[in-house]
Amino acid sequence: MSTWLVKKCKPMSGYVDQLKTRGLYSYFTELEKTGTYITVKGKDLVNFSSNDYLGLTHDPRVLEAAKAAFDIYGSGLCGSRYVVGTTVEVIKLEEKIAAWKGQESCLVFTTGYQTLLGTVSALLVKIDDTLEENIVFAIDKLSHACILDGCALAVGSHMTRGKTKMMEGQIRYFRHNDPTSLEAIVESSAKKGKNVMIIVEGVYSMDGDICNLPAFVEIAEKYDACVAVDDAHGTGVLGKTGKGTAEHFGLQEEIDLLMGTFSKALGGVGGFVAGQRDVISHIKHKARSFMFSAASPVSNVTAVSKIIDIIQTEPEHLQHLRENEKYFKTALKSEGFNYGDSATPIVPIIIGDSEKTMHLSQKLMENGVLMLPMVYPAVAQGEERLRCTISAKHTKEDLDRAMSVLVAEGKKIGVI
């Protein structure tokens, strides 16, 4: 048996073991109960590390919808949607999302990650399976892994008709949320006769800041570029009624492709892309991450559908989320904590040191609060932080409890 693989991987294993020995390893937490209030190794904790922003994953109506579908469709569909996994329930969900997002059509993927992989790569393939070499993807330097990997997979090496072709120079990075940097890329690409697709996140998951969508749309209109928004963390959170970042800025009609995930405010697993009917049809028949992945269980589909219904008819959940966010940020600011440019329930408590960040996370857990650390390479060195997420289901007592530990421990280690 070969030993090179073990030798290659041993340094990472050793590093992880050291962190565990020192009590500083906070990942792969084994949950015995989930939700806003969780259980870990028999200990009850308040959860500040979930993306369940509206706290609807355990709503009785959502559970009832999931159970009803489970009884009819069973535990899984055992096939891709392309073959045997498309049900009437997923078609209804696609129609509901398209109407909700103000788009002509929608396609549901099994995961959010696959949504970006499939959508971007599909756009590089023509109907005859030859490659479209005239597209440039302009993406934010701090884009999520799904955007980076989707573009890299699409243009780095694309297999078509048994041949691999390298597609160089089709990914261009602009400075985070910087219209001037983006325009320089779009302008230079347009002068070369290239078609440009600008891909941005509505909300950036590590910093909680909102993309400068109005400026980006203006640039797109100036150079006839397209705009695609991955609204994973904006859907259900931003906008007057929770439709997302486009609604937040009043730009629903100016976006070419809207993407998102079910694993945040929508309380499930999966993803979607919505846009013009012809574009969605093309993606549906060319996105390999869609065509060759098993379909999501219908119980998951109906649960997501029910949460969208609740969002549309009960605005109090979104209102409570915003009240909690304001309350907690006001407390952080008054104590001297730095939460960057966050304008959403994603609240990065920036520490700037890996060990201090992990120490704070451990002390929080000891005091009944789960708030996980984000250190390099998840964030840049010097940008280490606790990634705190606020939920509509948190009480004022929950927020005060977290603050009291942060303040006491933060003073001890010189963070504040």
Could you characterize the architecture of this molecule?
It is a single chain. This protein is of the alpha/beta class. It has helices at residues 4-21, 60-73, 88-101, 112-123, 145-156, 179-191, 213-223, 245-249, 277-286, 288-291, 298-313, 316-335, 354-366, 396-412, and strands spanning 31-33, 37-40, 43-47, 105-109, 135-140, 158-160, 163-165, 171-174, 195-201, 226-230, 257-261, 271-275, 346-350, 369-370, 373-374, 385-389. Strands 4-12-11-10-9-5-8 form a seven-stranded mixed β-sheet, sandwiched between helices. Strand 2 and strand 3 form a beta hairpin.
Give structural attributes.
alpha/beta, globular, 416 residues, Aspartate Aminotransferase, domain 1, single chain, 4-stranded mixed beta sheet, 2 domains, Aspartate Aminotransferase, domain 2
Outline of the structure:
With 416 residues, this protein is α/β, with parallel strands linked by helices.
Oligomer: single chain
Number of domains: 2
Tell me the span between the first and last alpha carbons: 53 Å
Which architecture of the largest domain does the CATH hierarchy give at level 2?
Answer: 3-Layer(aba) Sandwich
Average pLDDT taken over every residue: 93
Q: What's the Cα radius of gyration?
A: 22 Å
Total count of strands: 16
Strand order of the largest sheet: 4-12-11-10-9-5-8
CATH superfamily of the largest domain: Type I PLP-dependent aspartate aminotransferase-like (Major domain)
